[in-house]
Amino acid sequence: MRARLIAAFIVVALLAALASAWVVTLIVPYYPSLGNLIRPALISHLLGSHVPGTGRRPPAAPDAPAPEPATALAFVLVAAGLLLATITGLAFAASRRVLGPVRRLARAAQQMSGGDLSVRVEPAGRDELAQLVTTFNTMASALQDKVGELEVMEARARRFAGDVSHELRTPLTAMTAVADILGDGTTASADGTAAARLVGQEIRHLNRLVEDLIEISRFDAGSAQLIAEDTDVAAAVQECLRARNWAGVCCTVPAGLTARLDRRRFDVIVANLVGNALRHGDPPVTVRDSIQAGRAGGSELVLEVRDHGPGLPAGAIGHVFDRFYKADSARARSEGSGLGLAIAQENARLHGGRIDAANNPEGGAVFTVRLPVH
Amino acid sequence: MTTVLLVEDDPGARQGLELALRRLGYQVRPAETGEAALDGIRQGAVDVVVLDVMLPGVDGFEVCRRLRRGSDAPVIMLTARGDDFDIVGGLEAGADDYVVKPVEPRVLDARIRAVLRRLARADSPVETHGELVIDRSSLTVALRGREISLTPTELRLLLVLSGSPRQVFSREQLLDLVWEHGYLGDSRLVDACVQRLRAKIEIDTSEPRYIQTVRGFGYRFGPV
């Protein structure tokens, strides 16, 4: 932009210089005394004493001969050069004046698209550019206010979900405490017993839902903490499976693999992925574990949970970690809360890692956990 | 019959838990507030305290701290799952164990039994480790000739560790042996209890002589 502007100025300056030189050559012959007075002095001053025709003659000699053609040419060239230099300088200054604010605006816009909405440009002058800068600043302020408003609303909505879940927990404590009494067989009829069993089952389901909602609202509020300690990965995976009586899961985890993990959160990740595979896939469900070189240079703990079912539907792969996502909306409610995979993903992120979902070419869904190992 | 002091402000939860504990064969003394709970402790004959963290007025942590001054009755905190602040706060205040709300009655029952489990009295001679004297038959511990008051959990932890001097126990092993938890993945219970035990039996807690940390593995007793 600037180079092109300067080139244009140079062309104009050259033309102007030639034109003025031409005018000068037209005028000078009519005013020889003027020409004698100015030219040699000027030229000898600028080009030294080697300019032909100037010699060491006194500059104001009245009987001086008419200027030689070489002297005229030199004069024209010097005048053109001077003019060129002046105009280039002017062009440079003008381009600075125009391009400076434009560049500052561009930088600010770039910062804004990078997420920094607090950026403003210092307005200078009163021209159209200054007006543009003022408009830009107004726009940035409006955008910042809007985004701030949305953030407040979002935080409020999330806090509301968390608050509701906490409120639900108190009545659930009472219901959970007495649910077993209902199912004790104290009711006479078969319907009564069935109803009691259903109530107990639904209370447990509601408990899971509320717990998961509270857990995820902690991630939203940014209050989830990582309590990492050196962990024997094989032992942690086996404990997780044993605690839930998942005996049919085939586990290939090399012994002696250790990583700094939050035990509870790692347990949640493994339990959610394996539970999901057992519910939605077909056996055998396999868990594989290894340490691999990570993308960022360090090494990562890679844990793979695979089932041998039909795999994930084509459109589901990008959404399985969404909250309450169901691959088939017509499918009956599963025993999970619908938040398990979202919670697993949040736990992986808290470790600085992630979980990816994919289909194995040989069939079945594969969930791969990658956690950086420091 | 075991007497449970049940401290819970919500009437529904209190009545539900009271009903469930009664059916499990406990005698229940309900208390609505922290002040009522402290009164209940002063009246005596409380075997175990089940204490809600969120209480109006004096909260569960403060109740636990105050009752620890005059009582060694085991305390089980009723907390919200995963609320790390709750758990750590409760353990620092001196709780022996915690259960998460909403708790199933059989889980609470198992925890109460675990904190109350009679310690096997062995007919072994009195052990002396440096300035610490452990009497396994009378279940008393003395430091420099003075008897120290330990809660059942602290005593069990000390007996387990000192039963095999120099052997390193992992936190998971200790959770299993002392608290009879299944898998919890929560070693803070052990760490908090070790700190309390050290505060009572170590001369210098920054350089523990009896309960030593083996970094990356767990704890061991001695060598003294």
Q: What is the share of helical residues of chain B?
A: 40-55%
Helix and strand pattern of chain A: HHHHHEHEEHEEHEE
Low-confidence stretches of chain A: none
How would you write the strand order of the largest sheet of chain A?
A: 2-4-5-7-6
Percent strand of chain B: 15-25%
* Net shape of chain A: elongated
Which structural class is indicated by helix and strand composition of chain A?
alpha+beta
Provide a descriptive summary of the structure in words.
The complex is a heterodimer of chains A (374) and B (224). In chain A, strands 2-4-5-7-6 form a 5-stranded mixed sheet. In chain A, strands 1-3 form a two-stranded antiparallel sheet. Chain A has helices at 2-27, 32-47, 69-113, 128-182, 190-220, 233-243, 263-280, 340-350; strands at 228-232, 250-252, 258-262, 286-293, 299-306, 354-359, 365-373. The mean pLDDT of chain A is 80. In chain A, helix 2 (32-47) packs across helix 3 (69-113) and helix 3 (69-113) packs parallel to helix 4. By secondary structure, chain A is α+β, with helices and mostly antiparallel strands. The two termini of chain A are 48 Å apart. Chain A contains 8 helices and 7 strands. With 224 residues, chain B is of the alpha/beta class. Chain B has 8 helices and 12 strands. Chain B has helices at 11-23, 34-43, 60-70, 84-93, 105-116, 152-163, 171-179, 188-201; strands at residues 3-7, 27-31, 48-52, 75-80, 97-101, 127-129, 132-135, 140-143, 146-148, 169-170, 211-214, 218-221. In chain B, helix 2 runs parallel beside helix 3, helix 3 (60-70) runs parallel beside helix 4 (84-93) and helix 6 crosses helix 8 (188-201). The longest helix of chain B is centred in the last third of the chain and has 14 residues, at 188-201. The N and C termini of chain B lie far apart (41 Å). Chain A binds chain B through residues 166, 169-178, 180-181, 207, 211, 214-215, 218, 225, 227, 229-230, 236, 239-240, 242-243, 263-264, 266-267, and chain B through 10, 12-13, 15-17, 19-20, 23, 78, 80-82, 84, 101-106, 182-188, 216.
